[in-house]
Every structure is written in C-alpha cells, then in structure tokens.
User: Which sequence fits this backbone?
C-alpha cells in the first residue's frame, strides 16, 4: 500500500500517461484510421500538410509522453502543435473555443504545457534513467533528454 504522500506524484504520472495515450490515439487515427476513423472520415498521408505532419507528431510524441521518455521536450512540441491547430483552424470561425469547435485543441495544448512545466512524475523512463548513476549509457541518455536549467519533476528526488 503506497503512502498517502506518494499519491500526488503518481497521479501526475497517470495524468501524463492518459493525456499522452489520448494524443497518440488521435495521431494514429489521423494516419491509419485505427482505432477509429478520423473526424474528417479520411486518413492523411505523412506528406500532407498540415494533417499528415500533425498526425505523425501526435503519434510519435504522444507515445514518448506515455513512456515518459523526453517528456518535457515532447510535451512542448505537442503543446505547440495543438496551439497551432487552434489558431490556424479554429480561431478563424469564432473567438471562443466553445464557438469555434476548438475545445479539444485548447485543452490538449494547455494539458501538454502543464506536463512540460511539472515533468513526468515518478512512473517514467526519464525518472528511471535518472536514478541509475551506475548505468553510464542511461546517465548519458538522461542528461541528453533533460534540458539543463529546468527544475526536477514532481516525484524526482
């Protein structure tokens, strides 16, 4: 049974995993039509701008966020992708997200911004790699993936 003090960091990890999974599903749907057909009813090729490129970014970086690998960088990319989608597609038809159908893009953008700020939490490959100082390769990868100057994620002590 986990201590009560460990539940908020685990909750952060679960939040990251769920949001990343939803984004990866969105990207997979855009590119392959799996698990369901995309909103427009047709899939996009990888070379289609912006749908195919956005689908690829959503799938790849969504999976990285789920795994907790390069979490902050992946979350920044996804936050920017969703902000671009909101301002380039939805903002043209109305000011507020409820009026222009952009609630999903706005929520994803802010959700990934939160993940980029607070980090991956304890249930992440970033955290696992950072805790193994005897693993030279893991330490190098961890240093490469974690930008310097950013505070540690919640649960990384």
Assistant:
């Amino acid at each position: 049974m986990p201590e009560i003090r460990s539940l908020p960091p685990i909750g952060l990890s679960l939040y990251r995993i769920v949001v990343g999974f939803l984004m990866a599903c969105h990207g997979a749907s855009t590119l392959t039509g799996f698990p369901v057909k995309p909103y427009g009813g047709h899939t996009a090729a990888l070379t289609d701008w912006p749908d195919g490129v956005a689908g690829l970014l959503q799938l790849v970086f969504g999976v990285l966020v789920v795994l907790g690998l390069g979490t902050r960088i992946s979350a920044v990319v996804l936050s920017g992708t969703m902000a671009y989608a909101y301002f380039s597609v939805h903002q043209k038809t109305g000011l507020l997200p409820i009026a222009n159908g952009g609630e999903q893009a706005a929520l994803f953008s802010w959700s990934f911004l939160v993940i980029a700020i607070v980090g991956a939490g304890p249930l992440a490959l970033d955290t696992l790699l950072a805790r193994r100082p005897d693993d030279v390769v893991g330490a190098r990868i961890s240093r490469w993936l974690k930008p310097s100057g950013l505070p540690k994620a919640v649960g990384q002590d």
In short: The two ends are 20 Å apart (CA to CA). The mean pLDDT is 84.
